[in-house]
Each structure stands twice: as C-alpha cells, then as structure tokens.
Write a structure and sequence with these properties.
The protein has about 160 residues and is of the alpha+beta class. About 60% of the residues lie in helices and about 15% in strands. It has 6 helices and 4 strands; from the N terminus they run ααααββααββ. The chain has helices spanning about 5-35, 35-55, 65-75, 80-85, 105-110, 115-140; strands spanning about 85-90, 95-100, 140-145, 155-160. The protein has a 4-stranded antiparallel sheet, with helices on one face. Helix 2 packs parallel to helix 6. The longest helix has about 30 residues, at about 5-35. It is globular. The protein starts with a helix and ends with a strand. The relative contact order is 0.18.
Length: about 160
C-alpha cells in the first residue's frame, strides 16, 4: 500500500516520463518532415542509444554473465518500477534474463496523444533502443521485443551473457 505522498511522487515521476515520451515523438515528427522517416528513425535511435550507454556503468559489474545480480540491480534501479513499469521476471537462468514490462509511461503518453498501430509501434521501437545502449555497453547481449499491434503489455527484454 502506498501513502498519499508516495502516490503523488509516483504520478509526478510518471508524468515526467510521459513528457520525455512526447519530446521523443515531437523530435521524430520534425525530423521525419525535414529528412524523411528513415533518417529520423536512425538519428533518434542513435541519440537514445547513447543515452542508454550513459547509464551502463551501473550494470557493468555484473558482466558478462551474472544475470541474477543484473536482475536485482536493474529492478532496483528503475524508479518506482513496480508501479510505473510493472516488470515481471519471466525467467532468470544462467543463460537468459527475460523481463516482461506490463506498463510503460512512454507508450501511455503516445497513446494519449493519439498514436496507434504502426505509428505507436515505431515510437516504441525508437524509445526501446535505450535498453540496447545500456546492456550492450555494460557487457551483455540483448534482444528486445517492443510493443506491436495486437500485443498486450510493453517491451519484453531478453538479456544474455555478453561476449566478455
């Protein structure tokens, strides 16, 4: 059970993340108008990947293969994660850490702004690249299934031991 103050903080954090999502969408739309959709995707993904790299040091001590330690550190790193992203650890073995996110404030913001279908899937793909930057730079291998039309929830991360 959360207190009123905790609930207020969770809502403020969710709104800050939604604001970030709307900045991503606005930047993508402006670049797509100016340079075309493919170039806009490429540039947005490069920038967001670099943002992911900037936080990789938190997870690097677990590379290349301590997936249990990575799981604990990652889940504790996400601010108010259980309330905002509703992560579910599907599996955590020596071969793979698989996490399904059931919520995402970025996806919610894009939906509230009217994005749906392939346009929403595109933004989810662009925003989800942050995980590649984070986990690849930290020394792990990753494959992310971002939201697609007809699918419930949000991203599903598949993190495996890295080449180290």
């Amino acid at each position: 059970m959360t207190t009123d103050n905790e609930q207020l903080l969770i809502e403020q954090l969710r709104n800050a993340m939604k604001s970030r999502a709307l900045v991503y969408a606005a930047m993508y739309e402006e670049m797509a108008t100016e340079f075309g959709a493919d170039k806009a995707r490429e540039v947005c993904k490069r920038a967001i990947y670099k943002r992911g790299e900037a936080i990789a040091d938190v997870f690097a001590p677990h590379a290349p293969a301590d997936l249990k330690g990575l799981k604990d550190t990652f889940l504790n790193f996400i601010p108010q994660g259980k309330h905002i992203f509703a992560p579910e650890v599907v599996q955590c073995t020596t071969h793979e850490l698989e996490i399904q996110f059931h919520r995402c404030p970025l996806k919610e913001a894009w939906q509230e702004a009217g994005y749906a279908g392939e346009a929403l899937a595109n933004l989810c793909d662009i925003g989800g690249i942050v995980d590649y930057g984070t986990f690849e730079k930290a020394g792990f291998s990753i494959q992310s299934d971002t939201w697609q039309p007809g699918r419930e929830g949000c991203c599903r991360l598949h993190i495996r031991p890295g080449p180290g």
